[in-house]
Design brief:
By secondary structure, this protein is α/β, with parallel strands linked by helices. 35% of the residues lie in helices and 15% in strands. Strands 5-4-6-7 form a 4-stranded parallel sheet, sandwiched between helices.
Length: 297
């Protein structure tokens, strides 16, 4: 199997927090936040033109109701569908500094995989760049991404409303998960086949989400993303979660097709973008995990 390029975003989940929470203050004339790298970002007023260098940031801006202020996005920013009409400014790891500088946005908002070299070039071009990331938790998404983005947009109330809506979804699903006594063994597929077996180890946020959803991650005893086919066969999970591209391929591939979850029809597709992106769909991704696990009780 071809190893999915989306692993770039998956790897972001295990990046530790190296700075404190993102602090933000604003007034009618000034907006000030402290970003992930403890850099103070100042604007004279709400950001009216934004270049997003992160799919999670792009989703957040749209969810807050300000998608019309986005003037640039990466090639990975594919949600919501309206985002596809926004001009591309490169990829996550290779943003086109010249194109971004020519757009002359009020703010460039980056996240994981933003190269230091590009940061320096954009700063040298006189642009404002905020790097926003959160801890490996829902609270990290709230404090490290959604709240500071809403502050930069000049609408903190919209940020608080979005956080409130997400928290309500999470708590509703969490209550359901906590009522269950059985903990089925779960395997989360990132990659498989000739390129090796890849999953979410115990130090990833995905593993934490599986646990909170009422499952037992069979790869919780390893770190990172690499896994062994032998361990997968030996632990023989009850449920296998796959990205949509693998839903038909995984169950029909030799060796994998002998696993108990495959034989029992317990292979389920998940929207990995709703799980790995620190943005407004994170609570929905968690709720989906709870529902999948509950469907095989």
């Amino acid at each position: 199997m071809k190893f999915p390029v989306f692993i770039l975003i998956l790897c972001a989940v295990v990046i530790p927090l190296t700075a404190g929470g993102v602090d933000e203050t604003s007034s009618a004339a000034n907006i000030i936040i402290t970003d992930y790298f403890d850099r103070e970002i100042r604007l004279n007023g709400p950001a009216m033109s934004i270049v997003s260098l992160s799919p999670g940031i792009t989703e957040t801006v749209f969810a807050l109701g300000y998608g019309d202020r986005l003037i640039g996005r990466t090639s990975f920013c594919d949600y919501p569908p309206e985002a596809m009409s926004i001009p591309e400014v490169g990829s996550l790891t290779e943003p086109n500094v010249e194109i971004i500088a020519a757009l002359d946005p009020d703010i460039v908002i980056a996240s994981t995989h933003f190269p230091e070299e590009a940061l320096k070039k954009l700063e040298n071009a006189g642009l404002n760049i905020a790097v926003l990331m959160g801890q490996e938790s829902f609270q990290g998404a709230y404090d490290g991404v959604i709240r500071p983005v809403s502050t930069l947009l000049g609408d903190s109330e919209a940020g608080e409303q979005l956080v409130s809506d997400m928290e309500a979804t999470f708590l509703r699903a969490r209550e359901i998960a906590m009522k269950r006594t059985a903990k089925p063994k779960i395997y989360y597929v990132v990659g498989f086949g000739d390129g090796g077996d890849w999953t979410a180890g115990g130090d990833t946020f995905i593993s934490e989400m599986i646990h909170m959803a009422g499952g037992e991650n069979i790869a919780a005893d390893v770190k990172g993303w690499s896994y062994s086919l032998e361990a997968l066969v030996d632990k023989d999970p009850d449920i296998i979660l796959v990205p949509s591209w693998a839903l038909d391929i995984f169950p029909s591939t030799p060796i994998y097709n002998e696993l108990r979850a495959v034989r029992n029809g317990h292979v389920f597709a998940v929207d990995e973008n709703a799980i790995v992106r620190q943005g407004p769909r994170l609570a929905e991704g968690y709720e989906n995990l709870v529902n999948i696990i509950g469907s095989v009780d």
